[in-house]
Amino acid sequence: MPFPPRLAAPLLLPLLTVALAGAADDLRLAAITQRLAGADWEQVWQGTPDGPKAGFAHDVEVFHSAPDSLRLIVPAGAGPANSRVVLCGAEDQVGAGELRLSGMVRLDGGEDLIAIVSVHGFDADWKRSPDQQLAVFGQGAARGAWVPFSGTATLPAGLNQVVLQLAVVKGSGTVRLDDLAVIALPSAR
After folding, report:
1. DSSP state string for 100-128
2. What are the tens digits of pLDDT across the range 52-67?
3. In degrees, to the nearest 5, what angle opens at C-alpha 136 toward C-alphas 133 and 140?
4. If residue 136 lies in a helix (H) or strand (E), which one and from where to where?
5. What mean pLDDT, rounded, does the chain reach?
6. 46 FRET partner, CA 20 to 30 A, in 19, 82, 85, 101?
7. How far is Cα 121 from Cα 108, in angstroms, rounded to an integer?
């Protein structure tokens, strides 16, 4: 099956691999793959708007697997910050059940740097479901080295949107994501 034209462009792509079978799942996962490739990640939110600006971008110099990683930089004084991508939209028809993801994370920064990879959702009325942490990297976590993570979120019924979020909740520094993989996705509704 050919990729959509947007995926065929030289867009620093092999960031996501998917391990699911079935034609319906392949179509749903092609849309998710496109979003996770980086083009659909939303701008950074930060807790101290008047402070130094946090930034999010592809990093072609530091990565676990070529050609790039996703990088969130939070300078001192920026406060908490995050970047997020819609992992599954209403068109993906994700039902209730387990969503499992894995990947690699790298922290570069002070010992007070705490980063979280989490998932949350929104229903048809835009009511937000609670955050479910897939991985937490905190004080004492390795700095300057790639660390594997995997996590499972249990999606409730009735979600129209599922969001993957990378956040720095304390401290300052750089957090990178690479080798993201969807291991399991709930069946279609």
Report:
1. EEEEEEEEEE-TT-EEEEEEEEEETT-PB
2. 888 888 889 999 988 8
3. 165
4. strand 132-137
5. 78
6. 101
7. 29
